[in-house]
Design brief:
heterodimer, A: 480 residues, 10-stranded mixed β-sheet, 11 helices, 34% strand, B: 261 residues, 6-stranded mixed β-sheet, 4-stranded antiparallel β-sheet, 9 helices
């Protein structure tokens, strides 16, 4: 049908962030072996425990098999054909942002993340990661006044080694899964956040991940620790240039919340998704997990996933502390030949723990969009509750949506609720809006925004507006 | 038979219109002209093509015009998009208003009102100014403010949906309103509210086409002309007494007209 094709045209959006920064980089040779890992560790001047951590992870990884249970279709990854460390060449020591290569600053400027003192965002502190390294972090002094540590993980290894040694790998053990093991062996940089006891972080913290080089993988590692009665809101954004090869992104994010602490982690993921024929794009195989260690602690994940050729991602919560709370709010939009397999795991271990899952999947083109989630009530999770809602929206007649909820309960005195729905933007709905003078594109975008509203309401203000715009952009496009 | 209204130019001219969907002919040469201030009623059995005619005038993408023209204010609109027709002042009141989950009624009404205002070179309204306007219009259909915060038509009763349609008509101030079975599914009170709403909104510059099965709506809003449709054609046109006769004799009576033609 004519309109059906129009919908397809509308969801085609030229990728705005596809440019490559021409910059001299320091790359190590392709391939993965113990020597490479030693080299990465050496470049980062790491202590021995961290090298051991890496080597142990590598040994485990070698014995593991790449998971295939998600049923994602992609060509086998040649792990020896990837560069595991790529960094823009910079002066040895950078004492202020003004010494950062202007090309890098310009890159982040173009991405809408100005870093320099004059232009930096006023209400958000930013850690900018370019390929394998963090190049700048803003507002460090201001945050330090409150005792908040916000820096690259490499710096944290140098300056806050005790915290790294105490917490790294405690939420996502190196042996957790294939990609987590790989990350543990080769991770190069990422962000580190520490919020001391009783402190409410005075501003939102944000990391912006940029993959620039086409043949290296990005393996960043993020660790956030919220001490007793502290709270923080953390935002993560990601983009990459357009290459016709696939780039592997295998990150690990670990969150730890102690008694009465709360962490809100929001992601807007806009990696390059590949072209209409499915050539190129990022493989986004990410392990994100939070541990509600303390009583009444709270970890809330919200994500807007619009990019990547393949997304394999399940931000999860381990609810150990009594009355701790886990939340997962997700919007995943797939188009063309994108595949997304995303969801969450809520593992209720402590008593009176609570979790909420709201997932909205939108599939257009020939894409496949799956929700996969596990809710588990352990033997001690007495009086715990979960509520899950998984809604799918189909645009066009070639896209597919799946929901795979896994529910396991070992505690009779607990409640699990699951609701699911599937809808389609119908020709009649579009005609109704159009017959009220609303342009076709705006009509589609209104309906998609409406569908995602429950999740957008959970995003921090600036992010919600950005997410809305991003979806509208993705759905806007080539008509006229 | 025709009145002085004819001195001005027509709002809508449907000329020998034929249309099909999936190669199935639905309209087979319909002609209809509406002048400012006129109220036309179209009656006929289910499946005779009344609703199709209204959808085609509004630009529904499922139908192809195979012959004839639709002119609005003298201009051919055959190839205009539905939103362009709406912005220029054509309003279709739906027989079954569509539910749009997640989109708030208020936002929907505001965006659509502004689309029309933009076309009229009027200033677009922000949320606050729009609130003022919509409050005034809610009076016309006796709707509660709470309606505005709900999703478009979702969970509305049949009567509420129809009143929401009239509210949209009140906000968009169309040149011509085609109301497709706006009376169906309404109780007597709701019918009165809807009918009085339509009367309040229409004036000497606007045209109205009422598509209906029943005399009861026409008791409330007296049409200037009544057209009877059958098998994709208008087979008889008369004044308001035609509807009364039809009510008495049933559609079987109209079968004879086809034989006559």
């Amino acid at each position: 049908m004519v309109k059906e094709n129009l919908v397809k045209d509308v969801v085609k959006e030229p990728y705005k962030y596809g440019f490559v920064t021409d910059i001299e980089t320091e790359k190590i040779a392709k391939g993965l072996n113990e020597d490479i890992i030693r080299l990465i560790s050496q470049k980062k001047e790491e202590p021995k425990y961290l090298l051991d951590f890496r080597l142990k992870a590598f040994k485990k990884w070698q014995k593991m098999k790449e998971p295939d249970w998600a049923g994602l279709g992609y060509r086998q990854i040649d792990y020896q054909d990837i560069i595991y460390y790529s960094a823009p060449k910079q002066k040895e020591k950078i004492s202020s942002l003004d010494e950062v290569d202007p090309k890098l600053l310009e890159t982040f400027d173009k991405l809408g993340i100005p870093l320099t003192e004059q232009k930096k965002l006023t209400n958000v502190a930013v850690d900018a990661v370019f390929d394998s390294v963090s190049i700048a972090t803003t507002f460090r002094e201001e945050l330090a006044e409150h005792g908040v540590i916000f820096c690259s993980i490499s710096e944290a290894v140098k300056n806050h080694s005790d915290l790294i040694e105490k917490y790294l790998g405690t939420v996502v053990p190196a042996s957790d899964n294939y990609f987590a093991a790989l990350n543990s062996a080769v991770f190069s940089d990422g962000s580190f956040v520490y919020i001391p006891k009783g402190v409410t972080c005075p501003m939102d913290l944000s990391s912006y991940f940029r993959i620039n080089s086409g043949d290296s993988g990005q393996f960043e590692r993020t660790l956030i620790i919220a001490e007793e009665s502290s709270s923080v809101s953390y935002l993560e954004g990601c983009t990459a240039p357009m290459f016709d090869t696939n780039t592997l992104h295998a990150a690990v994010v670990e969150l730890i919340a102690l008694d009465d602490a709360s962490i809100k982690y929001s992601t807007v993921q806009n990696w390059y998704a590949g072209d209409e024929e499915g050539i190129g794009g990022i493989f986004n195989f990410v392990t994100k997990r939070g541990k509600c260690l303390g009583k009444r602690s709270k970890i809330s994940w919200s994500q807007v996933e619009t990019g990547s050729a393949i997304t394999w991602k399940y931000p999860s919560c381990l609810l150990l502390g009594e009355e701790s709370v886990g939340e997962f709010y997700s919007v995943a939009l797939t188009n063309n030949l994108q595949q997304a397999d995303t969801g969450t795991k809520m593992i209720h271990i402590g008593p009176k723990t609570k979790s909420t899952i709201v997932s909205k999947g939108i599939s257009a083109g020939n894409s496949i969009n799956s929700y996969r989630g596990l809710v588990k009530m352990g033997t001690k999770a007495k009086g715990s509750r979960n509520y899950s809602q998984c809604d799918s929206m189909l645009i066009g007649d070639q896209a597919s949506a799946n929901t795979f909820p896994y529910i396991k309960s070992q505690q009779p005195n607990s409640e699990i609720e699951h609701e699911a729905s599937t809808c389609r933007i119908s020709e009649d709905q579009l005609f109704y809006l159009q017959s009220r003078g609303i342009e076709f594109e705006e009509a589609v975008s209104m309906m998609v925004s409406g569908f995602c509203r429950d999740v957008f309401n959970q995003l921090p203000m600036e992010f919600a507006a950005e997410a809305d715009k991003l979806l509208a952009l993705k759905l806007e496009g080539s008509v006229g | 038979m025709q009145s002085k209204m004819k001195e001005s130019d027509p709002i809508l001219e449907v000329e020998n219109l034929s249309a099909s969907t999936d190669n199935l002919p639905i309209l087979k040469g319909v002609s209809l002209t509406v002048y400012p201030g006129e109220i036309h009623a179209i009656m006929g059995r289910n499946g005779c093509g009344k609703s199709t005619l209204s959808k085609i005038i509004a630009g529904h993408p499922s139908y192809n015009i195979t012959n004839g023209d639709i002119k609005f204010l003298g201009k051919n609109i055959n190839s205009l998009e539905p939103e362009e027709r709406a912005q220029s002042g054509i309003f279709l009141g739906f027989q079954y208003p569509i539910e749009i989950p997640g989109v708030s009624n208020l936002e929907f009404l505001r965006v659509s009102t502004n689309a029309r205002r933009k076309f009229l070179n009027k200033e677009e309204l922000d949320t606050f100014d729009f609130e003022e306007l919509v409050k005034e219009k809610l009076e016309i259909v006796k709707m509660d403010h709470a309606f505005l915060s709900r999703s478009v038509n979702q969970g509305f009763s049949g009567g509420e949906k129809k009143r929401n349609e009239i509210l949209q008509m009140a906000l968009l101030e169309p040149k011509i309103a085609i109301l497709d079975e706006t009376d169906s599914g309404l109780d007597i009170d709701a019918l009165r509210i809807v009918a009085s709403g339509i009367k309040k909104i229409s004036n000497a510059q606007t045209g109205i086409i009422l598509i209906t099965h029943y005399q009861r709506l026409l008791d409330e809003i007296e049409p200037n002309y009544v057209h009877v449709m059958s098998d994709g054609q208008i087979i008889k046109t008369g004044e308001s007494d035609l509807a009364l006769e039809l009510e008495k004799k049933g559609y079987e009576w109209t079968d004879n007209f086809i034989k006559e033609t």
